[in-house]
Specification:
With about 400 residues, the protein is α/β, with parallel strands linked by helices. The protein has helices spanning about 5-30, 50-65, 90-100, 110-125, 150-165, 180-195, 210-220, 235-245, 265, 270, 290-300, 310-330, 335-340, and strands spanning about 35-40, 75-80, 105-110, 130, 145, 170-175, 195-205, 225-230, 255, 275-280, 345-350, 350-355, 360-375, 375-385. Strands 6, 7, 8, 9, 10, 11, 12, 13 and 14 form a 9-stranded mixed sheet that branches. The protein has a 5-stranded parallel sheet with strand order 2-1-3-4-5, sandwiched between helices.
């Protein structure tokens, strides 16, 4: 086949652009004694209650790895980006991390909206995106790695326990954006399975602080259980108003997000005692590895640090699982690290054993149903080694390597 000079140049330019995008990071670390990874979190603004503790956990993981000699003979250089609770900054800073700082992985973008703004940038530049936040499940993408709980690992055990131990009639109140609405789907799935009923579901903007009408609607519906998926600082007003209305001891509250913003430390015990949640990790876990982890936190930043909850813990587990994949791969290259993650890595950390799952790019892990009293969490029930949901076999990066859309239960 004859190829004109113009056609050849066009083809070469296209190939070169793709190659350059994929090789920026590798060219940077190959000739250096350090390798850069990125923390992209909200360190200021209304969502810093989630972002700052997760970033702290990333910092502790990097310090631990570097203290042990680094990875493949290189120390890890943690590049820090504050998205300032502004969704527009996520793609901007992700691109800066990959092109300017040549990071070989990025973790953060904790909210659903932030995640969806960041994923396309990571795909374009062929750098692994580690997602450390709890989420609704259904992210099944070759370039993304989910190290926290998905819907079937968190909301399903919590709902099953609640329908079996509290009552069958559930009222759902949530913030109005994609993740709480997707979590709401699980209410109906599990209610049908457990013989329960979802009486109603109400969604409120993130800035709402007056829940008087909402509480009146719940009282009129007379549920056995209130399932709250209200997030952000303003949402704490609901719990204060619920307690002020004398409802805290009348209708139990369950939640898969309460505590992720350390609400239990902000609210008074009389405003929060008895709330039941489910997380893979909580700070009161009494295991030797967790005591070691907490000691490292205290030594690094002091005892005035924030409480480390299950959402924040993904900042630590994500870096550690990535590091295990790098060690198994013997490389920082995306394809080698991906293959190592997909091979099934077993890592025992502060939350117990976690094992990477190849087809879903999620993880198998323990989940704990816990309740709060006097700002301290205690264990109700442990659900051991829950695998990620395959969504009926639809979530499989081996058979669907180009899939990027979210899957629904």
């Amino acid at each position: 086949m004859n190829l004109s000079r113009r056609s050849f140049l066009r083809s070469s330019a296209a190939v070169s652009a793709a190659s350059i995008a994929g090789s920026f990071a590798s060219r940077a670390w190959a000739a250096s004694d350090t390798v850069a990874i990125a923390s992209l979190h909200d360190l200021s603004g209304p969502f810093d209650i989630y972002g700052a503790p997760s970033h702290l956990c990333m910092k502790i993981a990097v310090e631990e790895i570097n203290a042990a000699g680094g990875l493949l003979g290189k120390k890890i250089d943690l590049k820090i980006y504050d998205a300032q609770s502004d969704i527009n900054r996520y793609p901007q800073y992700a691109q800066k991390a990959l092109l300017n700082d040549r990071c070989v992985m990025l973790q953060g973008a904790m909210t659903g909206a932030a995640r969806e703004a960041t994923r396309p940038i990571m795909r374009r530049y062929k750098v692994p995106f580690f997602y450390g936040s709890l989420y609704e499940g259904g992210l099944c993408e070759k370039n993304s790695f989910c190290v926290n709980t998905g819907g079937n690992q968190q909301v399903v055990p919590l709902l099953e326990w609640s329908f079996q131990n509290i009552g069958k009639k559930l009222y759902y109140i949530a913030s109005d954006y994609n993740a709480p609405r997707n979590f709401g789907i699980w209410n109906h799935v599990v209610a049908k399975r457990e013989g329960g009923e979802v009486l109603a579901e109400d969604y409120y903007p993130l800035d709402v602080t007056d829940f008087t009408a909402a509480i009146a609607k719940i009282q009129a519906a007379k549920p056995d259980i209130v399932h709250s998926c209200l997030v952000g600082g303003p949402a704490m007003a609901f719990y204060r108003q619920w307690a002020a209305a004398g409802m805290l001891k009348k209708i139990p509250i369950i939640s898969i997000v309460f505590g992720a913003g350390n609400e239990h430390e902000v609210l008074a015990p009389e405003e929060s005692d008895g709330v039941v949640v489910a997380y893979n990790y909580f700070q009161e876990l009494d295991t030797p590895k967790n005591q070691e982890f907490l000691a490292k936190l205290d030594a690094s930043v002091g005892k005035a640090r924030p409480y480390i909850n299950g959402d924040a813990f993904g900042g630590y587990s994500g870096v550690m699982l990535w590091a295990e994949a790098v060690k198994r791969a013997g490389s920082f290259e995306r394809e080698a690290v991906t293959a190592a993650f997909e091979s099934g890595i077993r890592w025992e950390g502060p939350a117990g054993v976690m094992t990477t799952d190849g087809p879903t790019h999620n993880t198998t892990q323990d989940v704990h149903i816990i309740t709060v009293k006097n700002r301290v969490w205690s264990l109700i029930q442990k659900k051991g080694q829950i695998p990620p949901d395959t969504y009926g076999g639809r979530c499989n990066v081996f058979t669907n390597p180009n899939q990027t859309d979210f899957l629904m239960p």
